[in-house]
Queue: 4 jobs
Job 1
Amino acid sequence: MRKHYLHLALVFVLSLFVGQSFAQTAGNIYLGHCKYDDYIYEYDGLSLDHDSKVGVGIKLTRDMFEDYIGGKISAFRCGWDDAASSATYDCFVRVGNFNGETIATGRGAVKFGWNEVRVTQNITIPDVDTLCVGFYVNVKKNVCSIPKFYPTNVANSCFLFNDETTEDGKEIWYDSRSMGVMPIMLKISDTSGQFQDMLVCHGVKYDEIVPTSTQNIGVYDLENKGSNNITSLHITSKIGDQVRTDEIKMTAPITPGMRKNFKLPVYCFETGVHEITFDKVNGKAPKKVATTKAEVIGVPAEVSKQYTHRPLIEFFMSENAYHVPQYFDLYFMAGYEAFMDKMTLVCQHADDKYMIGDPEEALLLQLGLVNQDSMSVFLPDMTINRSLYGSNPVPGLNYPIHMGILYPSEIQVAYYNDILKHPTFASVNVKANLDAKGENVNITVNGNVADNVLPEGEHLYLTVYLMENEVESYDQRFWDDKEGEQVGNRYVHYNIIRENLTPLWGKKLSNASGDFTMNFTAEVYDDYNKENLSVIAFLNRGDQNPHLKRQVINSKEAFVGTDNTGIGSVVTDESKQPAVYYDLMGRRVLNPTQGGVYIKNGQKVLVK
């Protein structure tokens, strides 16, 4: 089956690692723009339409090499991308700029892959603000020979073409912002142990809403920039006058040059920004302490007991994407069906006739969830509470992603159960009824937000959707091996957003805490099935927060004509609850005509 990407950009973007250190063995440290183990692909490098001598270089700013001042420069690490040829690199280290004083040189043959060129002088890294590291090489016409890594738009990577010079004879080096990044790294030796126990923390992922006074698990991005193994860490967490320490013995060492994610404690005292420091490495205070921060919402146990957490699942689909609704039936529903009375489901439609908003709100929502990275937008996909996105899963739980959705059902069940354990601190209820003429739906949404839980000055936002369940369509695309993608055949959509009664990210509550009530009116059009209308309301943090901190706090769903009734729960008038059938494979069936056992509204039934 094919993955359908919703392309919003023409350039594929990868991450670069700037100023990292890499090493194969203790005592050697690498500096540069590129990862030591970045792949080198044949014929993916620099190619010119004429023979030329080319200069390639990198500016190292002081923050990239300051920790290694005084270290011995022992070699250069260079890449070559053409398996059919070899070349000679003339390498250099210069002070200040590319026309500055040369303090180290090296010359050596290179071939396909990574190569090491030894320096000819025994030189140390000086105490300066800028170093320039580079090489010269003869490039043959129409031969891709120097690896080029994407993306572009990375400063301090420079090129020199055809020995181009100024009037006074100085070389003209061009920034490579439009040409990608050429790999070269500087290798440093640790001869006296001065570069030991050098830990860097690049950040941590964690659950943003957790119980107070608890130790939770975060995923720390740690790098060993030193020359020895790291086997133990001492972590101190602090907010205000509250302090906690944890001693961690690594089950496997962080070897020199390694950058990897590690699951370590994130402690929550209360709502606020917790400062986290690695104040001991291998039992000793390091020269430079690694630090990071965790901004959490802490929910006291006595508060969370007052509320029931009902997560919001958003499943992104499009009729214009081959078989996307079938993924909903075959893969998503297989695990979700047992949770219908505990969770709220919204099917967000992108790029088809069921999309809402202008421009399309589902697409804007997806972009907001991935920090405006258009290449992370694809269909089908799902989110839970708008922050637990497929590319940013909950720390501590490993699960496979299939076509952007949780798969298989056994994994979904474990994941959903974990989400239901998360605390909440607000409630939302819905009352929705048709007016006497049946022309409008009158909606009242009320609820409560606990005191002293939200960060100071922050308010929640209310979003309200008018929904219709079991909408029949003949526009779904299918695949025929002989004729390709075809439109046709009936598909019954689980629920469609008919109208968003609030802005995309919700309407701001007037008070930060306490009771709230809002009223809405939605027009009923002729093509709506009044018997299948429902209202979904949920509270979320606003989009003034970073994209992973816009969580849905709680949600509610009720059929039009009922009072505070969650879909999937027991209702007194069953005629007002549409029959939703699934076979035992988890596939939705509009009206079962063959005898057998089916799931109807969460209960097994026998159809004769």
Job 2
Amino acid sequence: MLGLTSPYILIAMENIPTVRGAAQAYGLTFTPGTWVESIQITKGAGSVVNGYESIAGQINAELQKPTKDDKLFVNLYGASSQRFELNTHYNTKVSDRWSTGVYLHGNTHQEKHDVNHDNFLDMPLYNQVNVMNRWQYTDTENGFVGFLNVRYLNDEKQTGELDFDPDTDKLTNNAWGSEIETERYDFSGKFGYVNPELPWRSAGLQFAISNHQQNSYFGLRTYNIEHSSIYSNFTYNSIISDSRRKIKTGVSFTYDKYDELVETTSFNRIDNSIGAFFEYNFDDLEDINVTAGLRVDNHNRLGVFITPRIHAKYTPWEKSAFRASIGRGKRSANIFAENQNLFATSRNIIINSSAEGNIYGLDPEIAWNYGVSYLQGFNLFGKKADITFDFYRTDFQNQVVVDWENSQEISFYNLENESFANSFQTEFNYNPFTGFNTRLAYKYYDIKTKYQTGKKIKPLTAQHRFFANASYETPVKNNSKWKFDVTYNWLGKQRFPSTQNNPIEFQLPNFSPNVNTVNAQVTKVFSPKFEIYIGGENITNVRQNSPILGADNPFGPNFDSTFVYGPIFGSLYYAGLRFSIK
């Protein structure tokens, strides 16, 4: 988002930060799509209510509610790569106020593919089992609602050479291979109260306890991490004078215990913080909406600091919206969990510690984000259309620089010079006739960091991107209809980190080629209870033929699997069905 990777985005589940710490690399794959009821995305500085860590934006996923979800839902999926997936939901009402749901997700892929014949798997072998039990309490008469979630996840991945056998080759030079085994337990809940007589007064409590354990190795390198976390947040909502002036205030607490083993070195630490926040919203219900927030946190490693954020929306005329935001973010960089691809190389790992750094010997990251956007709706040939322009800039006061510019090492150090990320996007939506929707978008990134070898654009990030989507739904006839969807993605050239120190046969050009991909899906809805779908990803069969440097000698000094800029496997086709009982 805004040209920055997921560590700079606060990714939450029901407004509880979830994809963070040890879950940073793979956490997005741990929430199945069928479990999600809706997603809210905020670019730039988000609300202070959810914490101080977000810098580029916030993504929040709301889960299915047992009282609103189907009583039974089944989704089966199979792909030409021999990936198979099952999703089932079962919801039932236990009493007048209690309902519960059991959600099961499983996926597996056990077929070895090597389309480019480099003796390495084109995609991992994996198994995942993901189970959640969700309880909902509703007492509308007295103004209470609550949710409790208990979840267990087991995820196993294997990558490496085709003939790698974990039973005989693990952590040996018989064959290069990697396994990543993750086990995670979550217990979370949220409770809300709305005063039945004064509905503008409400209070809410959120809490989450989790344990995330990953045991992994990459060739001869071991990486293990255990992350135990506690999160709680209490909020109170009311108004000042009238409903145009709303306030939200509260306190939050976080506790994180990390135990990491990087090859033979242990990195253990405990982070905890307590904070208070206040947010004021003015909405004249016509033209202006302004939200100003401030939070103060006391962190055992980051110290006492203030996080200010402001959002404003102005509607100058019909079907328009002008938005602006500014805010500050601060975070601890978990350099190994966030950059696990470094272990699948022969590079030496170097940490250039700062004098005062106490997180891997490094200082925390601090950045300001500024953004403006403009939306205008209009009629085009009598049909609805809209166009959006937005620009965001992130300025780092301090950043943990991940430096890949020496092909024999990866260095972590604190920013000593300028680092910024500019993001510009324009989007056009048009509905030319009933059931047919189109979307076009162009995005430009200007992201530069002053490395030890000079100022350079961010590697393996396309500066220019283009997206086009068209979807069509036929009119419903006898409870039946068709749905069609086609998406085109274009990525411009991407800069490779320098390989000039390598022997000439292991040197790459400065930039990658452009990448074009097309995805399509057709769905036949037979009734509100049953539908089937077929589709294809990358149907033009675009492939990166040699993604791994030194693949013929993975234990040699030039082995590097981090230069991936596009698809490796090629075309993939799939089919599935959805069945539900309301």
Job 3
Amino acid sequence: MLQGPGENAGVIDLGDGEAVAFKVESHNHPSAVEPFQGAATGVGGILRDVIAMGARPVALLDGLYFGDPGHMFRRAVAGIGAYGNSVGVPTVGGETRFDPAYRENVLVNAMCVGLLPAERVTRAKARTAGHTIVLYGATTGRDGIGGASVLASQELDDESSEKRPSVQIGDPFTGKKLIEASLELVERGLVESLQDCGAAGLASSLSEMASEMGIDVHLDRVPLREPDLEPWEIMISESQERMVAVVRADMLEAVEAVCAHWELPCTRIGEVTDTGELRAFHDGEVAGSIPARLLTDECPRYEVEREPRAAEPHAWSEPTRDDPNVESKEWIFRQYDQLVGSRTVRRPGLDAAVLRLRPSLRGLAVSLQGPRLGERDPYRAGAQAVLGAALNVACAGGEPLGLTDCLNFGNPEKPEIGWELERAIEGIAEAAEALGVPVVSGNVSLYNETEGRAIPPTPVVGCVGLVPDVRYVPRGWREGDAIVAANAEGLAAEAALVRFVARVAPLLSLAHDVGDGGVEAALVEAARWSGVGAEVDVPQRARVVLACPPERVGRLGAQFEQIGEVGGTTVLGEIIG
């Protein structure tokens, strides 16, 4: 682990001089108010988090939880496609769930994966007094003012539509220029630190940069798209496609030249100090001042009350074939560019996607997973998300290396929600420990309630794994293959299964985890993916389904039971092909 929690994204060393940066975060409340822009700017924000580490984004994944596949859902999908497709980063995976519990509080979680040289991890904190603070990218306006306080930290209600002005407006073409300009600045060694200008705008980004030093910012220098912004509005605006950099004096002209080449405004808005304070000036007068550490490491902390909630039964029931949770999601991911960048070896549609680490034959398997649909126990929800994401990666031939989590919960000021949050974290931690894999980054989304009704505990976990050779990624079962299945119950058993599947993947033609729809749904999904039917005796319980040539079954071990054979044009009564 080259960088853990505390920076814009986590970073894991891949060996051979390469590293991967990744993170998942939420844009739930904006998406509930205006789904197209809410989802689009969620993609833009997570891209900038990875860029801030000095990494080139190579993949996006999204976790979408909605009440139904209706208008709001379709608008969110359109927003994700509009931004990701335009900015030139492939959307290769994710998860979609429909449940009435999310009807009034939709969840849009976005994950980004980027690549960088292992010796060139860029960080956000300023470290030398006298260096210049540069703001580059889009101009600053009123869009997004109050996004963090008006939307993210309050419950929704009947007046939520009035909060639409708090939703940021995205511009993916400026976002693309921002990616290229930022990477050029980092690759040429022109910036000392780099920070995304996201939630709470300059107030947040500068306080994080100033936490170990101090920063003076001159708000009247910030390029505006509206001439009459007040100093406080400039400070907290969440206008998109902006980055903040710390630059040495002798590099300023070169930085400005790079930004000019990419047609981006570039402005010297302040300087690093040794005062320990974040001070905002406007027209030569101090508009605000506070010790920077009070906004970061020394901010007020408190223990939320926690009270165990009465146990609720699992709200999931065996879905029918026409349930939208079981139906093919191809109509969704077909709206996303999956191949731009020419790294995608395995497209979305089954378990994890795989990206090639050119020019080598190694690859990255990436997945994003939440708990089982209807799960109400927060501990199990956390553990399920971790183990599900890791098993998806293993099924694509990847050894899990690192995790990132997004914790979606209701109002933590309510003791039962505080307890849910604590228990989910414990479930994530213990499952990660069982796997021996670190959680390197993440995000918290709270207050997901409407008129007192909270969402179920929904921790969503992303996993990144290393594929030794992309030529041996399981691609689909073939005529004559044997189909086998195995079950696993308990953290230790599931973790062992993940490690085993990752290890034997090169021997397999297909590996697929058993999800919400049960074993039957998993077999149908495998047949659709492969384009070949099968004759099977469905086991009562299984955690994973594998397929391989019959002569290799004995090498899989006694825990795997043969349940069928690949062949024909149907599986469990469904026509394939």
Job 4
Amino acid sequence: MANNKTNDPKTRAMGLFGFVSASAFFFKPYWKQVGIILAALLIQAAFRAFLPIGYSQIFDGAIAHSDTAYVWQILVLLSLAWAIHLVAGLVQDRYTAGVGARVLNDFRLRMFAHLQRLPSSFHDKRDSGDLMSLFSNDLAAIETAYLRAMPTVLFSFIVLVASVTLLFVIEWHLALITFACLPIALIGPRILSGKAQTENYQRKNSEAEISAVISENIGASVVIRVFGLQKLRLAAFRADLGKLATSAKRAYVTSSLIGRTSSQTIQLLQIGVMGFGGYLSINGHLTIGSLVGFVALLLNVSNAANYISSAVPDLLPASAALQRINEFLDARAVDLERSHDVDFPPFSQIRFDKVCFVYDQSKLMALKKISFSIPAGTTVAIVGPSGCGKSTILNLILRLYQPSSGKISVDDIDLTMISETSLRKQTSVVMQDTILFNSSFYENICMGNPEIDQTGLEEVARQAEIHEFINSLAQGYETQVGEWGGNLSGGQRQRIAIARAILHDPALLILDEATSALDSATEAAVNETLTRFGRGRTVISTTHRLRTIIDVDLILVVEDGRVVEQGTHDQLLARGGTYTTLWEKQSGFSFSTEDGVAEVTPNRLMTIPLLSGINEDCMKSVASMFVTETLPADRIVFMKGDRGDKFYIIVRGTVEVQLGCEDDGKQYSRLLQDGDYFGEMALLERVPRNATIRTLANTVLLSLSRFQFKVLLDEEPNLRKTIEKEAQLRHGAV
């Protein structure tokens, strides 16, 4: 959720005056336009302030002496002044709108530029919905303040000062009473402004939390639907709305009290002045015209105070919004062009020396004193179980994070001292989830080199084997790919990413599970393209599919944040260590891309504890009973509570095991990949599943039904006893 900082003393200190002074910085580049706006406001305020003097002259100078000509002179002058006042108002509206729009765009541009330079650690800790709220809700509050509230406050303040000054000209006794009572009208707002600022800041954070929840639900819509979490999420959202309603109520009530205390004091003052003024007029100390003018000026004072107080509810949220934006802009960004940085060299070696890394939000050590070196031109694969630290190593090489300790060097140059701009120019990345922008094929590919011409663009598309597909479309390279590339298949998105990488012509190519989400046929084709493109370059990849890395120059085996083995495929198999275990887990399977049929060998089945007691002849029968099931991503295999009737082995793909909620309400889950299995207890008894299984990528499963297995057990009584004994040891498996 949003990162609340309501106890930050800077938050409480800003207030309305802080907001106005901080805003002056953003208006400084437009001082000429601001000068015109101020001049227009002065003209309007002068008309409003001197209009009561005109009323006074009509009563005392014209009506009292029955001078019709003087009445017309005053009316003509007032009409001329009104026309000038009207033109000034139109000028003010035009320039206020123009300057306001430019200032808001300056905000957006500055915030967006800052967003591009923030490190990955910032995004790890900040919700995307909260960031979206800065650009939407918070900027909207500031826009309202700049275009409506601040001109109103400034105009009303000028009218207030001018009117109070003229009150002394007309009748200083009444003016003294008015002037003495005005500070009373400011006491309430002064007392309440600090509390109102805090309440509005809390309200802004509550709104940001709501935005974060909505953003999260949109992104997780499939998960919410397939797991039936609608009621749970709705209940949580209702609770968040309750918090927002409470903070909004407090903010509104406190802001309203500021205006109400001021306006009610002014109204009480009006009653007193009217009574005393009437007394002075009756006793000949004040003319009727002066009393009318004084009352009209007093109404100016009252209206000005009311306008100022009515603008406060718009200024307070804007002040809180500006505080949140300033906190965002104060977040430490990555300096892309430090003067002391060196260019990324044509390197001969990348070296990790006792590197440790801790993610801020988890406080758990993801990498523990890992050391290895990668010579230039080497193809390297990093393997290991899910969550072992593979992607963290890539993130450190890409300098998306900094090591917590230890050193990463490129030919003895500390990676942190290399210019990030030059590092990016010589590095390309192809990830599992390809990020495409909602624009054309041309624009998405050209991000690798914006200066490329059409001929060069088509050549790299041919190398990525995507040109023919693009050329077959009606609009060719100008065809829109859709949001996140939604109009394309997974393989097509990956080929766009490869074309982008080819166009970048990198010295260092990073592949982060680049093909794991693809089907077998597409994976083979994309891997062939990547292999061809990677020749002569340094290629570092992470993968859990070991058959794709048999020919790489170096394999790093990572387990629990440590590099436990390194060498070639043959060297690691000869050691019989962790890599051998991983290899054997994924061995014993075959899959035909032509007919979509998978098979498992009897020897591989014997490594499964529940089936380990079956003899070789029976195991051949068991192996023949398995049926191939091919499932797309985001497909439920079975739900928690379903009656178990099948046992599954993952031939290729990734599934998520949702085990339930912990005490803090967070879902606890784990991943299973190639060679893993689940649901074995269903072979013996039809008990409810104790977890929900969902595919995260295109997945090929081998399934064995309880009915078929039961026929085999009925024929082999001794086999049943062996398996039931093993089942007692395996009790509780999903």
